[in-house]
Protein backbone atom coordinates (compact mmCIF):
# COMPACT_ATOMS: atom_id res chain seq x y z
CA UNK A 1 0.00 0.00 0.00
CA UNK A 2 2.83 2.34 0.89
CA UNK A 3 4.53 1.67 -2.47
CA UNK A 4 1.30 2.46 -4.29
CA UNK A 5 0.97 5.80 -2.46
CA UNK A 6 4.57 6.70 -3.33
CA UNK A 7 3.97 5.91 -7.03
CA UNK A 8 0.78 8.01 -7.07
CA UNK A 9 2.61 10.90 -5.39
CA UNK A 10 5.42 10.75 -7.96
CA UNK A 11 2.98 10.66 -10.88
CA UNK A 12 1.02 13.65 -9.53
CA UNK A 13 4.27 15.56 -8.93
CA UNK A 14 5.51 14.89 -12.46
CA UNK A 15 2.22 15.95 -14.02
CA UNK A 16 2.44 19.27 -12.16
CA UNK A 17 5.88 19.97 -13.61
CA UNK A 18 4.55 20.18 -17.17
CA UNK A 19 1.89 22.81 -16.46
CA UNK A 20 3.93 25.79 -17.63
CA UNK A 21 4.78 27.33 -20.97
CA UNK A 22 7.50 29.53 -22.38
CA UNK A 23 7.75 32.51 -24.75
CA UNK A 24 11.03 33.16 -26.51
CA UNK A 25 12.15 35.09 -29.53
CA UNK A 26 13.95 38.08 -30.92
CA UNK A 27 13.18 41.79 -31.18
CA UNK A 28 14.60 43.54 -34.25
CA UNK A 29 15.02 47.30 -34.02
CA UNK A 30 13.88 49.27 -37.07
CA UNK A 31 15.18 52.71 -36.09
CA UNK A 32 18.78 51.72 -35.19
CA UNK A 33 18.94 54.69 -32.80
CA UNK A 34 18.92 52.63 -29.62
CA UNK A 35 19.66 48.99 -29.13
CA UNK A 36 17.21 46.32 -27.96
CA UNK A 37 18.79 46.27 -24.51
CA UNK A 38 16.87 49.52 -23.78
CA UNK A 39 13.55 47.71 -24.20
CA UNK A 40 11.38 46.10 -21.55
CA UNK A 41 9.09 43.19 -22.39
CA UNK A 42 6.06 42.85 -20.12
CA UNK A 43 3.74 39.84 -20.09
CA UNK A 44 0.15 40.73 -19.17
CA UNK A 45 -3.00 38.74 -18.48
CA UNK A 46 -6.23 40.75 -18.44
CA UNK A 47 -4.27 44.05 -18.24
CA UNK A 48 -2.39 42.83 -15.15
CA UNK A 49 1.39 42.60 -15.38
CA UNK A 50 2.46 39.02 -14.71
CA UNK A 51 6.19 39.05 -15.42
CA UNK A 52 8.71 40.54 -17.77
CA UNK A 53 12.23 40.52 -19.09
CA UNK A 54 14.85 42.58 -20.90
CA UNK A 55 16.30 41.37 -24.22
CA UNK A 56 20.04 40.88 -24.59
CA UNK A 57 22.23 43.05 -26.86
CA UNK A 58 21.19 40.93 -29.88
CA UNK A 59 17.47 41.29 -29.11
CA UNK A 60 16.94 37.71 -27.89
CA UNK A 61 14.61 37.12 -24.96
CA UNK A 62 12.97 34.27 -23.03
CA UNK A 63 10.20 34.15 -20.44
CA UNK A 64 9.90 30.82 -18.58
CA UNK A 65 7.39 29.24 -16.23
CA UNK A 66 4.26 30.88 -17.60
CA UNK A 67 0.99 29.51 -16.25
CA UNK A 68 -1.82 28.44 -18.59
CA UNK A 69 -3.87 31.29 -20.04
CA UNK A 70 -4.12 33.95 -22.72
CA UNK A 71 -1.55 36.73 -22.55
CA UNK A 72 -0.43 39.95 -24.19
CA UNK A 73 3.24 40.81 -24.66
CA UNK A 74 4.05 44.52 -24.43
CA UNK A 75 7.33 45.95 -25.72
CA UNK A 76 8.08 49.22 -23.96
CA UNK A 77 10.80 51.81 -24.35
CA UNK A 78 10.76 54.99 -22.29
CA UNK A 79 9.52 57.89 -24.36
CA UNK A 80 8.06 55.78 -27.18
CA UNK A 81 4.72 54.11 -27.76
CA UNK A 82 4.19 50.49 -26.74
CA UNK A 83 4.01 47.64 -29.22
CA UNK A 84 1.47 45.00 -28.14
CA UNK A 85 1.17 41.39 -29.30
CA UNK A 86 -2.21 40.03 -28.17
CA UNK A 87 -3.66 36.52 -28.03
CA UNK A 88 -0.66 34.49 -26.88
CA UNK A 89 -2.22 31.24 -25.65
CA UNK A 90 -0.18 29.21 -23.19
CA UNK A 91 -1.07 25.59 -22.47
CA UNK A 92 1.04 22.95 -20.73
CA UNK A 93 4.51 22.63 -22.29
CA UNK A 94 3.83 25.41 -24.84
CA UNK A 95 6.80 27.09 -26.51
CA UNK A 96 5.87 30.21 -28.46
CA UNK A 97 8.66 31.58 -30.65
CA UNK A 98 8.21 35.21 -31.73
CA UNK A 99 10.07 37.44 -34.16
CA UNK A 100 9.05 40.99 -33.30
CA UNK A 101 9.83 44.39 -34.82
CA UNK A 102 10.14 47.56 -32.74
CA UNK A 103 8.96 50.22 -33.27
CA UNK A 104 6.10 48.54 -35.12
CA UNK A 105 5.03 49.66 -38.59
CA UNK A 106 2.90 52.78 -38.76
CA UNK A 107 -0.82 51.94 -38.75
CA UNK A 108 -2.37 55.19 -37.57
CA UNK A 109 -4.90 57.05 -39.65
CA UNK A 110 -3.99 60.10 -41.69
CA UNK A 111 -7.67 60.92 -42.23
CA UNK A 112 -8.82 64.30 -40.90
CA UNK A 113 -12.13 62.75 -39.77
CA UNK A 114 -11.10 59.48 -38.11
CA UNK A 115 -13.40 56.66 -37.08
CA UNK A 116 -12.88 54.50 -34.02
CA UNK A 117 -12.82 50.70 -33.98
CA UNK A 118 -16.61 50.38 -33.87
CA UNK A 119 -17.19 53.11 -36.48
CA UNK A 120 -18.20 56.03 -34.27
CA UNK A 121 -16.80 59.52 -34.92
CA UNK A 122 -17.82 61.25 -31.71
CA UNK A 123 -15.70 61.39 -28.55
CA UNK A 124 -12.50 61.55 -30.66
CA UNK A 125 -10.07 64.29 -29.62
CA UNK A 126 -6.73 65.46 -31.04
CA UNK A 127 -3.44 64.37 -29.48
CA UNK A 128 -0.90 67.03 -28.49
CA UNK A 129 2.85 66.37 -28.39
CA UNK A 130 5.60 68.30 -26.61
CA UNK A 131 5.79 70.10 -23.30
CA UNK A 132 2.27 71.41 -22.59
CA UNK A 133 1.76 75.04 -21.62
CA UNK A 134 -0.90 76.25 -19.18
CA UNK A 135 -3.59 76.58 -21.88
CA UNK A 136 -2.94 73.06 -23.19
CA UNK A 137 -3.07 71.64 -19.65
CA UNK A 138 -6.48 73.27 -19.13
CA UNK A 139 -7.75 71.78 -22.42
CA UNK A 140 -6.46 68.38 -21.31
CA UNK A 141 -8.26 68.59 -17.96
CA UNK A 142 -11.49 69.45 -19.80
CA UNK A 143 -11.03 66.43 -22.10
CA UNK A 144 -10.58 68.50 -25.27
CA UNK A 145 -7.06 67.18 -26.07
CA UNK A 146 -5.02 64.13 -25.08
CA UNK A 147 -1.42 64.68 -23.94
CA UNK A 148 0.81 62.27 -25.84
CA UNK A 149 4.36 62.82 -24.59
CA UNK A 150 7.45 64.55 -25.91
CA UNK A 151 9.26 62.06 -28.15
CA UNK A 152 8.14 61.86 -31.77
CA UNK A 153 8.92 58.84 -33.94
CA UNK A 154 7.51 59.95 -37.29
CA UNK A 155 4.69 57.46 -36.89
CA UNK A 156 2.63 58.94 -34.14
CA UNK A 157 -1.15 58.86 -33.67
CA UNK A 158 -3.01 62.11 -34.20
CA UNK A 159 -6.32 61.30 -32.50
CA UNK A 160 -7.54 59.58 -29.31
CA UNK A 161 -10.87 57.86 -28.65
CA UNK A 162 -12.04 58.74 -25.14
CA UNK A 163 -14.60 55.93 -25.13
CA UNK A 164 -12.21 53.03 -25.93
CA UNK A 165 -9.02 54.72 -24.61
CA UNK A 166 -7.38 53.98 -27.97
CA UNK A 167 -4.97 55.96 -30.13
CA UNK A 168 -6.08 56.38 -33.75
Task: Write up what this structure looks like.
With 168 residues, this protein is mostly beta strands. Helices cover 14% and strands 39% of the residues. It has two helices and eleven strands. The strands form three sheets. It has a four-stranded antiparallel beta sheet with strand order 3-2-5-6, with no helix packed on it. A hairpin with a 6-residue loop joins strand 5 (69-76) and strand 6. It is globular. Residues 11-16 have low confidence and may be disordered.
Q: What is the CATH homology-level superfamily of the largest domain?
A: Immunoglobulins
Low-confidence stretches: 11-16
Terminal CA distance reads: 66 Å
Tell me the structural class. Answer: mainly beta
Q: What CATH architecture of the largest domain do you see?
A: Sandwich
Q: What share of the residues does DSSP label as strand, in percent?
A: 35-45%
Mean pLDDT: 83
> Major beta sheet, specifics?
4 strands, antiparallel
Summary tags:
2 domains; single chain; 168 residues; Immunoglobulin-like
Would you summarize the structure shown here?
With 168 residues, this protein is mainly β.
